Amino acid sequence: MDVSTLLDGLNDKQRDAVAAPLGNHLVLAGAGSGKTRVLVHRMAWLMRVEEASPFSVMAVTFTNKAAAEMRGRIEQLMQGTASGMWCGTFHGICHRILRAHYLDANLPQDFQILDSDDQQRLLRRLIKAQNLDEKHWPAKQASWYINGKKDEGLRPKHIDTRHDPVESTWLRIYQAYQEACDRAGLVDFAEILLRTLELLRDKAVIREHYQARFQHILVDEFQDTNNIQYAWLRMMAGQQAHVMIVGDDDQSIYGWRGAKVENIQRFLDDFTTPQTIRLEQNYRSTSTILQAANTLIENNADRMGKSLWTEGKEGEPISVYAGFNELDEARFVVGKIKTWQDEGGALTDSAILYRNNAQSRVLEEALIQAGLPYRIYGGMRFFERQEIKDALAYLRLMANRNDDAAFERVVNTPTRGIGDRTLETLRGAARDRGQTLWHTAEQILAEKALAGRAANALGRFIELVNALEDDTRDMALYQQTDAVIRHSGLRAMYEQEKGEKAQARVDNLEELVTATRQFTPPEEAEAEGMTPLSAFLAHAALEAGEGQADEFDDAVQLMTLHSAKGLEFPLVFMVGVEEGMFPSQMSAEEAGRLEEERRLCYVGMTRAMEKLYLTYAEMRRVYGKDMFHKISRFIRELPEACLEEVRMRANVSRPAASGGRFSKTQTQENFNQTGFSLGQRVQHPKFGEGTIINFEGSGGQSRVQVAFNGEGIKWLVTQYAKLEAL
Ligand code: ATP
Ligand code: MG
Question: I want to staple 102 with a disulfide (CB 3.0 to 4.6 A). Which of 50, 107, 203, 436 is the partner?
């Protein structure tokens, strides 16, 4: 057997780890040092040199994508002789165990997984059924309570709430919820782990079976495991298994979700004679990128301490670009990706990373406009997100009462007491009469064919939509959208839910207002008598379906910094690197959270192999308001020698002189030929003073968007607008 291939392409330290004697091992090392690579080679080593059966090997990773990649690599190394090995996420592996032992786990054979949206919907129903006010007992909070308890391994019977009336209510909800799940054969994510842990704990035969089977357990990204995952690992490993964990305390970014970086230390304390192996050579990034990332992370206290060096080339400096606003920032990024592509680069090799999902919208639009396909990882495209579809459904109903899909979507969102039975009656009647839901609703209300409470609730919905249209008829589209989000109760509904995900939904709703504000109907829309609202709805519908690349297409990769963990790309853009966004206002005020944000920044920067751009916007619309943001402290913490400031934006002072100087991008040049520049103060004969915030087109076609002091924001054709520079 030729084992040398297993050690080929590894440095000495990596070889030590791959060929280490059987035992417990911690591989502690910084980003890009080959931890994942070592893990994969170690598995092959175990099977080929230690003659471990594939059936005795289990590898745990953090995401499905990582698990799939790992399996591919292993099969390649083993030339197809690795079947029987388990490789998956904690949830995936536990789910598999529950399926195999459903009877012992007290589950029906066809038990189903309840995702977090379903979980909340169920909770909302149960909370109402207990006659509790949803305002005081939001479903979101209930799910936090329940998942939190499950993560600690606690069932209702373990919780003593005799001295805490508030908690005793949460507990009651937990109980009702668990009974409902058990009755329906449903398990939520936390339940998958807890139930497996209990199964192994209580059924000695099953536990011993797995402990005897899995002699080799390997875990990647160990710094982000939580309590229950750790407990599960100990249980699985028992006294005999050999466990190798790899991780990087500097990349622990899920503390907010209960991950415990302390688990690394616990591993050293709990497992027998663990050996620590450190890898110090980075193979991913240029020395410039690496040096900058190392310097950044040194600002954190309490590190386990690692050094990281590279033999790689120095590479280009990290480029920092200050966008005038978020549109300008997006245009810059897309311009650079186009250049990359023109020079022969693959789009798949480029990634745009952002802190929050809501930030993707402006980038998506810029990419679509430039005709660049893109893919969003670990999240949905903006116009496909639940809350956006909710808000659009109201707008669609206002534009067209016959839109049954929109009607169905929001008739009871937020909940207004229109039950399934009422809806069934309504659907039946609509079918019988061959009418739309809206018309049927109006008719059966007039006929008084519904019982009192149901009739009232439905009547209120009809009134609401009518009133939304009447009251907002003369408003600008963005004001209309804002009014809809507020008066429909959508915003309040998501605000009440609390937690990161709900906050993201509120952010997205705000971002929708910004989207309508920045939207310009195409010229033909007006000619065809379309209202701006209909034109926008058409735009949103098309955009939801357009530009999304198929799995194998060459496409720009978009994702949050969190979902970029473990990945690498030759060209990386980190956008929105400004105070108030990254770090966010809230985390800036708390030392622990600030350090987690800094680790997130470290994770982001270390994804880049060849070229890294850090961009920010001096002015950004957040929560519907223009915010003026300063450059992020994270950029200021980087060594100046590694940075290069990109100056591309037209100069504000003298537009006439700017033509030649700022000719790096085509669009910019075109814009400059108009004699105007972004951020420029101008005077209009009718609208008065304002600031140029956006532009499009060139020559006679060019238009500028101006924020006037008193007259709002307008698009003007540059040629006819009679604008004067101030
Ligand atoms: P992260 O902390 O981001 O998860 P990691 O430590 O898991 O990073 P890997 O993804 O395993 O690092 O490796 C980073 C890159 O370096 C990969 O492209 C990998 O193929 C390459 N690499 C690792 N070790 C070597 C080596 N000895 N020689 C050449 N390339 C290597
Ligand atoms: Mg890795």
Answer: 107
How many whole angstroms separate alpha carbon 482 and alpha carbon 458?
Answer: 23
Active site residue 500: no
221 belongs to the catalytic site: yes
- Rounded to whole angstroms, the Cα distance separating 50 from 334 reads 50
Name the pairing type of β-strands 608-622 and 625-628. Answer: antiparallel
Among residues 137, 152, 184, the one where a domain terminates is 184
Q: What is the ipTM of this complex?
A: 0.99
Catalytic-labelled residue, pool 151, 188, 191, 221: 221
Whose CA is closest to 11, among 29, 77, 26? 29
Q: What is the mean pLDDT of residues 22-35?
A: 96
Q: Are 110 and 185 in contact (CB under 8 A)?
A: yes
Over residues 531-576, the pLDDT tens digits come to: 888 888 877 766 655 445 555 578 999 999 998 999 999 999 999 9
528 plus 432 within the same structural domain: yes
Give the structural domain span for 577.
292-381+548-646
- Residue 165 maps to which CATH number? 1.10.10.160
Q: Does residue 569 share a domain with residue 466?
A: no
Ligand 2 centroid vs 595 CA: distance in angstroms?
21
Q: 387 and 377, same structural domain? A: no
How many domains does one find in the chain?
5
- Binding site: what residues are annotated? 29-36
| Cis status of the peptide bond prior to 414, with omega within 30 of 0 | yes
pLDDT of residue 258: 84
For 655-695, the pLDDT digits (tens) are 333 333 233 333 444 455 566 777 778 888 888 888 888 77
Question: Residues comprising the binding site for ATP?
Answer: 29-36
Would residue 196 show up in a list of annotated catalytic residues for this protein? no
Q: Which atom of ligand 1 is nearest to the CA of 606?
A: 3
What is the number of the ligand closest to the CA of 564?
A: 1
